[in-house]
Amino acid sequence: MEQRGYKIRRARGYLVGCVVAVFLWSVASAQIRYSVSEEVNEGTVVGNIAKDLGLDRSTLKERKYRIVSSNVDPLFHVNQNDGVLYVSRKIDREEVCSQSSTCLINLKTVLENPLEVHYIVVEVLDINDHSPSFPEREKTLEISESVLPGVRIPLQHARDPDGGLFSVQQYKLSPSDNFRLEVKDKGEDGKIPILIVQKSLDRETAGSHSLVLTALDGGKPAKSGEMNIRVNVLDINDNAPVFSQDVYSVMLDENAPVGTTVIQVNATDLDDGPNADVIYSFSSIVNRRLLKLFDINSSTGEITVKGLINYEEKDRYEIEIQASDKGLAPLATQKSVIIKIVDVNDNAPEIEVTSFSSSIPEDSRPGTTVALISVNDLDSGLNGKVICSISEDAPFTLTPSLQEKMYSLVTKSPLDREKQSKYDLTIHAKDAGQPPLSSEKTIGVVVSDVNDNIPEFILSPYTFYVTEGNEAGTSVFSVQAYDRDENDNARISYHILRDSSTENKLSSFLNINSENGDISALKSFDFETLKTFQFQVVATDSGTPSLSNNVTVNVFILDQNDNAP
Hints:
Blueprint: H1 2-28, E1 31-37, E2 45-48, H2 49-53, H3 57-62, E3 65-70, E4 76-78, E5 84-87, H4 93-96, E6 104-111, E7 116-125, E8 138-144, E9 152-154, E10 168-173, E11 179-185, E12 191-197, E13 208-217, E14 224-234, E15 242-243, E16 248-253, E17 261-264, E18 267-268, E19 278-282, H5 288-293, E20 294-296, E21 302-305, E22 316-325, E23 332-342, E24 350-356, E25 359-361, E26 369-376, E27 386-390, E28 396-400, E29 406-411, E30 422-431, E31 438-448, E32 456-457, E33 462-467, E34 475-478, E35 481-482, E36 492-497, E37 510-512, E38 518-521, E39 532-541, E40 548-558
Parallel strand pairs: 1-7, 8-14, 16-23, 25-31, 33-40
Antiparallel strand pairs: 2-5, 3-6, 4-5, 6-7, 9-12, 10-13, 11-12, 13-14, 15-18, 17-21, 19-22, 20-21, 22-23, 24-26, 26-29, 27-30, 28-29, 30-31, 32-35, 34-38, 36-39, 37-38, 39-40
């Protein structure tokens, strides 16, 4: 009856576990998004994660909730008691997300007992706390009086650490009859101001022009920065260098050695003498980072590799080059060189165990999550496509998660601690590059005991022979049982089954040691009165719920010559 009740309770627990598992899976796949402005004070509330997940305080007391990983230094922390997410320190958006227009902080949180994973995204909102500024406060340009209207002169653009609408949005040029301003949008390099000559210059009428270039951001009110431009009008040199191609585009392998030739450009000038000598350089608007990666020969126009080219950092470069002559009033022509970086398989996959249950009960159903594995490869295409596997023949498998490049290590078949109590699982990750790169990580999983084995007696039934006239209170025989479980589940206690049946009436004259199974008689047996009897001994383990087994003990009384004729 006890075993039948235990089986019913296990069946009910299995059905409830299935429902709970489905619910937890849906919660773990959800993503919560918050937003907070930069420069807010430490301790500012971002949001109540527990409330948004539908958890109450009593749940938080029983289950530990914590942040397990994030993309940056800990900017946030969560209160264990109420699940509120707070700002840990003042956040400078320009420091945290200097390369991104949208500043998203990804947090991975874990709710334990049972394990739940939640993905939190916090967007740091920009405030207009910087003004635009130019690299130079004063700029001097020298332009020949012979230039035709329409000549375009790129100017150094202003920089504003703020992002979005709070970055540089427009430029204004002080009123001038001879010049106008055009703004070119260069994408990630921002808006570039271009000075355009709209009316022929006459050095004899005006030898110089003073202009003010103003950069404004999109704040309300807008912040601004200025650069003073002085244009000196020089005489003659009326031909600018002309490049031999309209478009320069080239492919370059990443990790190309320093000194590798990328491309050679060529420009000619129809003038004579110094006015026809061409020198090459990078345009003044070229990002400083590019100057660390590429170099250009001023005489030949050969562009070479100067630094480490990493596809994972950037897969395309657009470099503005300039060809200038050596005239007294130098003329220059700009041209874009597009360099496309070809990915090389130079990064091995990285395996990270983001959450891990080192011990799992042996009665866990197939599909139980043991660990969450994230795999990342910095390469792209086939070089970044990673295949994960477990090489050991073990009752575990990897299943892809809803999150990209995430896997769940789950049980695929029933576990039995009595057969194997620990598994060392090696996770292999290999990319699809040629040649492929791989890595591996080993984790140990301990199978914890469940009370699923009943005590077993060494003999069944037991048969003992006792000589009549035994001394009352001494041990006459013993029984012994063992349990294949461990710890409390294997700790056995003994007792004699006593009831009102005729067979078990004599058991009242017996006593059993509950720890070792030794049985002592409380009275002396008399062969002439009692020749044989039997009783039941029950062995019970200390598990929850406990399991038990019984055995029949047959006792035969041996005659002694204790009666005279």
